[in-house]
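Deliverable D4.2, example record:
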Amino acid sequence: MRFLVALCIALSFAATSQAAEPKLNVLMIIVDDLAPVISPYGGPVSTPALDKLAAQGVRFTKNFANVPVCGASRASLLSGLAPTATRFLSYDSRLDQEVDNAVSLPAYFRQHGWHTAANGKVFDVIADSAASWTEPVWSPGDDWFGKEPDGRGEHLQSAYLEPLPSGRSPYFEKLEVADDDYPDGQVAAKSVQDLQRLAQSEVPFFLAVGFRKPHLPFNAPAQYWRPVGSPDEMLPVTWQSPAPAIPDHALHRSPELGGQYDALPFFGDPSDEDAAEIVAAYHAAVRYADAQVGRVLQGLEDSSATANTLVLLLGDHGFLLGEQRMWTKHALFEPALRTPLIISHPSFTSSHEVRSVTDLLDVYPTVVDLAGLKMPAHVEGVSLRPLLVDPTSV
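Output generated by the structure prediction step:
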């Protein structure tokens, strides 16, 4: 009898302790157009902030987007729903217009008591699924040279500091300016402030931070630029020797880089030297984005929420850097689809690499699972929790 009483007390105490345990905060960082050129993935670009995060968490090295277009990919990953023939197809895809009664990832957390907030580019169209957020999505408010303001914040995407000439826009800008003179620096500063504020609340938070670089144009302060290496160092093997017998409809003429921007000649390909300079400019934008990620992660460390915050770092798709003589995305080749995914959970102390194939559909169920919430019926991915514990799990 005493044993049963003692057991009941122990079980009651355990249940009370579990109920009293604070809910997990979520910090999700999305880096636009991020290919696995970063150093924790063995890439040529040194990224100290991402190195540090990878050393604290798990990096998924065969992670893929479901569609190589920003808006469509973001609508898919934030809804947990795969693209189809009728939804999530274009750059301006909107979840709230293409799926009836959609419950986005932040909306699901808001429904379960989390304070949800977003800074920068999370959904491609800033106004998409506005009810997902407890407070309005924040974006920098400065005037930029570039496209006129619209629902997608294209003027922020361009974010030139110097006046633009007529015709095609420059594909990069390199100025001796501070990080916060460009929008991503301001997004980082705002996110650090938000982490300090949200960490003081008794309500758990879901904070999404979206950095626009290294998306075109490759604008970054001068400190992030490095000398351009030789074409042999900078360009992929298939730049000089494209694979034979690829169907024409699988290829494109890089209209984003050559139509909107001045990186490519109107006819033919750039010289090897010019192509190497394009890659170097993309790398500079990656270094700039990494520095802003580092500021946010340091802000989390400086807050009181570190020990109870799940951190996810991901791109929305990959990026072609001369493979098959193509640039940007919009193609079903691995470089346009493969993108980093790094997850750091405060309870999982081991750091390892996962080589199993994963995709961005797995983000929604993974975050829900790790937060201890019931899995929504609509999600089409799977939780990556087993792989966080054992990289050999399948």
